[in-house]
Amino acid sequence: MSVHAMPFEDLYATHYLRIYRHVYRLVRQHEQAEDLTQTAFLKAWRAWPPASDANLSGWLSTIATRVALDALAHRRRLSFQSLDTLVEWLEETASPMREDEVCLERLLFTEALRHLPTHMCALLLLSSKGYSATELARERGLHKATLARQLVAARAELARHMKEGQP
Predict the structure, then answer these.
(1) pTM of this prediction?
(2) Whole-angstrom Cα distance, residue 45 to residue 12?
(3) Checking phi first, is residue 130 left (phi over 0); if not, alpha (psi -120 to 50) or beta?
């Protein structure tokens, strides 16, 4: 059967699992792999039918690879944000304290941040700078609910590390 005669739904049903596994091997996160697989199929659907019947599987794999690599590159760009900005925000929004309390709070905060994975620090930083969960999810190529769960987990992890570090 020619690709041009094949309904897109058949293409999706036939290749979804293979494309999902390929994307998952690249991003190593289940929810993100699902989202990116859907994005890859959406791009394929917009470009349907392909110019050639020669290698449909390769055509889909190329689209999926590009989508996943774009998401990974974007994730890296977001994760290299400065943590100093987050510390400054904490100082600006903190309740009035004595200087020694501020110093201790900053020390506990900085020490807690060192124990967090880079992606959690980046989420906390961007959230503290006013980015909404919707904006962050779009930028990271994730569903909003997935990003919101990651943000809640990052805040809980930060709080846990700060509590452990209290004298």
Answers:
(1) 0.46
(2) 9
(3) left
